[in-house]
Amino acid sequence: MTVAKNPEIANAYEDVRDDKTATNWLLLEYESDKKDDLKLSKTGEGGLQEFVKELKPDQAAFGYIRVPISNDELSQRTKFVLVCWCGPKVKVMRKAKLGIHKTEVKNVIRTFSIELMGSDIHDFDEKEVVLRLKKAGGANYDRQSSNY
């Protein structure tokens, strides 16, 4: 696995983290079914909704997303999400190695508020993700999401 040695992945990670760039997500995919090496597949500017459209049912992949959240106009902040995707049609051996590979990915993608595991695109509902980010962020003064 060559995640830590891949400067393209490290640069994309820093680009997503940088609030001055429009890039707000990245997708890491396996180079092939037979190899465990990950490559930077795509980056984008359309947030979680755009990212989810890139996930395939026969694919295992990792993602990193910058999500702006706020309780009001005075409390704007940025949170980050690490995504581990394992589509419903992923082969058994790939599923078996996914946990080990996630550890390698975390050596490069180190800063995130929450980690999401998913095997269905509905696992990434934007409202639910934002609510989880708010919960992970500590104090929440938003009356609309005080049901936690």
TrEMBL record:
Protein's UniProt keywords contain Hydrolase: no
GO biological-process terms attached to the record: regulation of actin filament polymerization
What is the native source organism of this protein?
Dimargaris cristalligena
Q: Name the major location.
A: cytoplasm
Record's superkingdom? Eukaryota
Q: Which Pfam families match?
A: Cofilin_ADF (PF00241)
Which stretches make up the ADF-H domain? Answer: 1-134
Recall the GO molecular function terms of this protein's record.
actin filament binding
GO cellular component terms listed in the entry, alphabetical order:
actin filament; cortical actin cytoskeleton; site of polarized growth
SUPFAM superfamilies for the chain: Actin depolymerizing proteins
Q: What InterPro entries does the database record attribute to this sequence?
A: ADF-H, ADF-H/Gelsolin-like_dom_sf
Q: Which PANTHER family match?
A: ADF-H DOMAIN-CONTAINING PROTEIN (PTHR10829:SF56), CORTACTIN AND DREBRIN (PTHR10829)
What is the protein name for this chain? Answer: ADF-H domain-containing protein
Q: Which UniProt keywords apply?
A: Actin-binding, Cytoplasm, Cytoskeleton
Family classification: Belongs to the actin-binding proteins ADF family. Coactosin subfamily.
Localisation:
Cytoplasm, Cytoskeleton
